Amino acid sequence: MIWFATAVALSPYRLSDTLDTYYMCGGPFIPPSVVQLGQGLILLLAVAVSGLFVAHFCRLWIIGKRPNPVKVALLITSIAFWWYCNNLVANILVGIALFEVFHDVQYLSLVWIYNRSRVEKDSNIGGFMRFVFRRSGSLMGLYVGLVLAYGSVSYINAHIGMDTIKRILTGVVTASTLLHFYYDGFIWKVRERSTRQSLGLAGGTADVMLGGVFPSWAWHGLKWVGVFVLPLGALWFWQIHLAIPEVQRQAWVVADVPIGARPHFEYGSALQKEGRLEEAVEQYKIGLQFNPKDAKAHTSLAVALTGQAKFDAAVPHMETALRLEPNNPDFHLVYATLLQRIGHNDEAALHFETAIRFKPDSVEAHYSYAAFLAGLGKNDEYISELRRVLQLRPDYPYAELRLADALFANGNLKEAEGHYLAALRADPKLTVAYNSLGKVYLSQGQISQAMIQFSEALRLNPEYKEAEENLRIAKGADDQVFPAAHR
Questions:
Q1: Residue 131's CB: how many other CB atoms inside 10 A?
Q2: Would the pTM of this model clear 0.90, i.e. be above it?
Q3: Measured between alpha carbons, how far is residue 190 from residues 74, 81, 205 in Å?
């Protein structure tokens, strides 16, 4: 077990994830010196335990009690692959899925070997068991395929957008993991006499007793309390009463784990959300020194530089991101917006169109392209894109508003009125829509309706000068139409 813990402690990826979860739960800051000391101690302990294991192995070999080579092979390959998954696989989900597949194959291979032996030695076994565990290459392939499918559930779960299926898969993974630990606990207790007796087997060691006072179940319960209940209770208390802001959390993680790209990327993202762009840029640059092929980090850095109006500095990072992931629609959209900002409209149009081609149902892509077309004065194409946006998201008030504005500018007053009303249904506090709807009514000679809309706009925003002026014009028009009534 010690090498499994050591792999996590010495992995920048996993250690930063563990510390982030710990700080997210409100845990107090662990100074970097303490983290480094802990890493050194756990490595030293792992080496010491390994030395004792080798010495014990050699002693058994000398006296003729040679350990099962299959067990030794399982031990070595398990530790080696766990180390690989934690230290050489950057994506934690991929690493977990890989090890789950590997570990499942190990476990189920033992089951397969055991049942093959039973089928060959016991003539009373027949039917389904004999069919499944017969010598067959195709069944072996099916078996390994099912193991691979099961082991990849965690990875699939993290990439499915459908919430219902995602919840089901999360439940399956959680239940399976708990069952896995239950069976592990059972396997570890097979040597105890009481467990063997319940299985109808002879022999076994005495049940574990704590000082001859407590039964094994009490000792087992105390271990759960000490290892899980008390630490998790403390983390729950800290999370409720000592919530730590994300920026502070990520700063602590970077201080504890300065080596590795991911902690710096996460810290940069947190700083960017807070508007601290200069610091965010610095963190992204440090992270890219560790992993220069992270396309998402290049894009985030480009966005941060764009926010500082450093457009020329942002362009190379977007070019790098697209070179690394040329089919990413989000990257094309970000680059198109950047090119639009620096006046490269022809290139921007190509990237907008590419983003839409790769992701035709993206509301953001169509809406951004519509805004771009409006800037070029291409009203018909602009209106067409806005209609597409509203097909994809009918309750989008700003798309309704912009479409209504475009239709109003084209003189299509009745349809514009309908879209202004739709915008207000989606967002009843959209002040500008009341003012614009009032202008439509005023253009149609519906003066009283126009006055109602201008008044509502001023009620929501008393400082709205345009609505105030429009209301004055409407009242003047009303005075001319109905002078006697006002006198």
A1: 11
A2: no
A3: 19, 27, 9
Residue 379: inside a domain, yes or no?
no
C-beta atoms surrounding 223 within 10 Å: 10
Tens-digit pLDDT profile for residues 326-376: 999 999 999 999 999 999 999 999 999 999 999 999 999 999 999 999 999
Q: How far apart are CA 219 and CA 231, in angstroms?
A: 18
| Tokens standing for residue 348 | 């921007």
Q: How many angstroms separate the CA atoms of 50 and 57, rounded?
A: 10
Whats the size of the chain, residue-wise?
487
The DSSP bridge partners found for residue 148 are: none
The answer to whether the CB of 308 falls within 8 A of the CB of 278 is yes
Cα gap 256→45, rounded to integer Å: 21
pLDDT of residue 482: 47
Neighbours of 219 (CB within 10 A): 15
Give the range of the structural domain holding residue 455, as residue numbers without chain letter. 429-487
d(CA 283, CA 289): 10
pLDDT digits (tens, 9 = 90+) for 250-295: 999 999 999 889 899 999 999 999 999 999 999 999 999 999 999 9
Question: Under a CB-based contact definition with an 8 Å cutoff, are residues 448 and 477 in contact?
Answer: no
Domain boundary among 148, 170, 205: 205
Any domain includes 284: no
Lowest-pLDDT choice from 24-33, 165-174, 217-226 = 165-174
- Please, what's the b/e burial string for 378-407 (b: 16 or more CB within 10 A of its CB; e: otherwise)? eeeebbebbebbbebeeebbbbbbbbbbbb
Domain count for the chain? 2
Domain termination residue (choose one: 155, 181, 205): 205
Distance (Å, whole) CA 298 – CA 325: 11
